[in-house]
Amino acid sequence: MENEFTNFDEIKTKIVNLSAVLSLPKGTEAFISDVHGNNDKYLNIIRSGAGNVSRKVEELFNGRLTLVNQKKLVCLIYYPEEVLQKSKQDVDPDEAEQWYMDTINRLIEVVRYVSNKYPRHIVDQALDSRFHDITKELVFEDFAAADKIAYYREMIKNLIDLNMSDIFIISMCHAVQKLAIERIHIIGDVYDRGSDPNLIIKHLSESWQNFDFEWGNHDILWMGSMAGSKLCMLNLIRISARYHNLALLKNAYDIDLTSMIKFATNRYVPLPNFEPKITSANVTDQERNIDNCVQQAATIMQFKLEGQAIKRRPEFDMDDRLLLDKLSLDKKKVTINGHDYQIENGCFQSVNPAKPYQITHSEQTVIIDLINQFTHSTKLNEHMWFMADNGSMYLKHNDNLLFHGCVPVDNDGNFLKWKIDGREYYGKNLLDYFEYILKDGMHHPTTGDCFNSDFIWFLWEGKNSPLFGKNKMATFERYFLKDEKLQQEEFNPFYKLCHNEWFADKLLKEFDINSRGHIVNGHTSISKDAPIMANKKIVLVNGLSDSIKDSDIGGYALLFDSYGMRLETLRPFINRQKVIEDMSDVVLDKQIVEHSSERKTVADTDYGQKIKRQIAKLSAQLE
Fold this sequence. Notes:
7-stranded mixed β-sheet, 5-stranded mixed β-sheet, 26 helices, 16 strands, EC 3.1.3.11, Metallo-depent_PP-like, carbohydrate metabolism, FBPtase_class3, fructose 1,6-bisphosphate 1-phosphatase activity
């Protein structure tokens, strides 16, 4: 009987704790997209809480610290290691101890302030375990209590005297970063042209506790390559060579490109239309030539295998992409829609006019070597399953719908229907179907041509693919033709219709979301589109992309906290050193999307619903 009573007490205590959590303010969610492998740019957003850290510092120290000192504190929180080194050089040695005292005290205040909305165990997870006892005293106890002022002062002084102050400051800054954002939503394209997508995955897996991915079409290339899609792999290699990023494959994923490099440099010569896009000055002519020739080799192999896939899958409706069989016999012209166009700097020497989509024996040898490496790369498998396990084609979260790309529709807003194996797919169930195919392909990787591989590649560039959202990917035209009209890629009508509230309501209904909800969309949209559309029901976030040219805007991120939603207009990111030198904040401007008259609590969230169900189950045990 005594044990039963003890269990009842434990159940009641759990109910009390869970009920208390429901009354806490809703945590802050950050929505970003199009990371594109740029780790420094990604970290600049994450460390700043997408602008939330500077807002908290302003709220806390307005009237107590000058704007300059607020900036210094914010910059320290973003980049503690670098700023500490710089501060040591700038601070007079006689004033160093006071600087440390002031800095630590301010950071303790910030940690307290940003942790107010969290239960104790969440804050504990964000704090460095090496300083658990110290932070427990400094952060959770009454720092202003008269009887303990000397005690707290002595504790901080000992941190300084024992040369522990630097590492303590760094740990507190990292805690602020984690507590400023409760959940990160990355709405597509962790991977693309950038050199460090592996570091982004590493940061999330080791340093963050609450996040999700909504896959983008560039992510599909990497996931598909791991699943054995040769077409995904060739596109991936071509893009990596185009942006001088082949070293990533070897350094991060232990993929040896020797066979491809030897083949490409023996068969092709550098051409101006395949000149790699390189920003660094420390690139040799040999490296440039390798990038150039590998691009050519991968492009031609890609076109050949694309032709085979398009012929295998008439349901893709991509016959307009069959262009190798439209080349003239001398391969200097191509016929498109009945018109002949001059080829600029062609590299079609391996294309057999009689069988233009046939892979040569030498090409086949290279492809087999590489695809076997991709499917067997331990680190690539680890990272791609991390993306798969923590991601999806779309996410319904806290009455918001998140996805990258589009939900394919016609000009009238009717969902485009796909008929596969006698069944029609459209809208929500089309995205569900593609997610099933992708994960099934990853669970059963094969390097042979198969249904899953073809459909995974289609997600990358297929006509009106939900993750691509255009009528074609004009790779051939952009490489070989000067006609700008032919190079144009038309967006699915989805993007124009996003300006209409009725269309937003239709999308929300299709995914069974309340009409008061929002759609948060990632991807490079139609240029100059307003980021807030459809009476504030659709929000475009593209905060890390380089798509906004000739502008002093670096994109957009979205924050959703207990007070509502606000869109952050971001500064262009040049590099980490520039941010530290200028002490520049990540945010240029803010725009309210939604403001709550009553502050939202955990009870209003999906997590709150989960807690309520847990409380109900516990309460039933007391009956």
